[in-house]
Amino acid sequence: MSNRVNQVAGHLAAHHQVGQKHPDDVVIVSALRTPMTRGKRGGFKDTHPEFLLAAVLKATVERTGIDPALIDDIQVGNVLPASGGATQARMAQLYAGFPETSSISTVNRQCSSGLQAVHYIASAIQNGTIDIGIGAGVESMTLSYGPSAMPPSYDDDISAFPAAADCLLPMGITSENVAKKFGVSREKQDSFSALSHKKAANAWKNGWFNEEVIPVTVTQVDKEGNEKKVTVKADDGIRPETTPESLAKLKPAFSKDGFTTAGNASQVSDGAAAVLLMKRSTAKKLNLPILGKFTAFATAGVPPNIMGVGPAYAIPKVLKKVGLNINQVDIYEINEAFASQAVYSVEKLGIDINKVNPKGGAIAMGHPLGATGARQVATLLTELRRTGKKIGVISMCIGSGMGAAAVLEAE
Ligand SMILES: CC(=O)SCCNC(=O)CCNC(=O)[C@H](O)C(C)(C)COP(=O)(O)OP(=O)(O)OC[C@H]1O[C@@H](n2cnc3c(N)ncnc32)[C@H](O)[C@@H]1OP(=O)(O)O
Q1: Given ligand 1 and candidates 171, 235, 334, 341, which is best to mutate, with the most ligand atoms within 8 Å of its CB?
Q2: Record's PANTHER family (predicted)?
């Protein structure tokens, strides 16, 4: 019995060891995403989330050549739709060519849902519940955003409890709170945001997104109601001409005397992403390419009224698990929900800004809530591989006051 316990403990430790390869490592053999497009105006403004999810699931099967019947389970991060988008997810799976014997569910950890889905699948593989799975994410903010995403009423006692009441603050107000409390100036926020656009435009120009982005052919409807088929190939919220000076002219979006504007907040957007995971031993058996290892994951709670500080707490927690310090990470993929919170998190942890979001982030690319965490896995892995670097960290802030972080290693 104690031998078995030791054996299991050994496997867990191996999984969390950076720089080591073990047959039981959970590895990533595919990480793909759709373009991220502007909500209500972009390429997917007339596209339902189940279509975006089906497109990325189908591409995962086609590009890897895996038999979809071998994929035991799929988890999909999805934030806004009714019933968590569970029915749409099953519809997407079947439409994408998966057999009826396969299964799927959705997960909602708000803005970190896509990353959470990847972690749940990695855990299920690690503990032997499944052999092969997909962690994915999808969101059509165009079709799901707005008051319908909130319950019509709350319990009086709970919603009068201050910390609970803070969970209901608009996200833009939490951004203002972070800027004010920690003195993140408008200038710093605008400079960070202009850089996000510049880096994303540069990455597209140099083809650095080609490996992770799949083209999606959709039906668009014009103002006259005419339908046409369009193949959406690239993120369409990026504004390469953005400068700190042009951003300085924008009015605050959430409070009259605030700092957060349409230019230094993440964009309302639409998109999907999917990550195929299995044990290293399974990937070898199936002769699938090992792109990287999903090494560790952690979450941390923070005050809901400054939810954007989440990465400053989740990153040290996940790094402690794997015995790394801040400087030993090669690339950070930090969600840019708002420039205020991204700047705060980077400065608080003393992260070298040159290591942060080398292909831009949600301010330029967009932030389709449920999709973003899985999108970050694809963006980070392809960048680690392109640059020959090894260790990457993903981090997210989470709307009701949490942070999430994961460590990935390129093969
Ligand atoms: C845990 C989490 O992750 S929380 C985060 C969850 N996500 C959110 O809360 C979404 C946050 N973002 C938003 O709510 C919205 O983007 C808002 C309210 C900030 C702005 O919404 P909109 O007003 O619809 O944005 P829109 O894209 O139209 O921009 C407004 C204007 O700002 C200007 N603008 C925006 N970006 C730029 C830029 N980079 N450079 C110059 N001007 C810009 C433009 O003039 C634009 O108008 P135009 O496109 O017609 O020229």
Answers
A1: 171
A2: 3-KETOACYL-COA THIOLASE, PEROXISOMAL
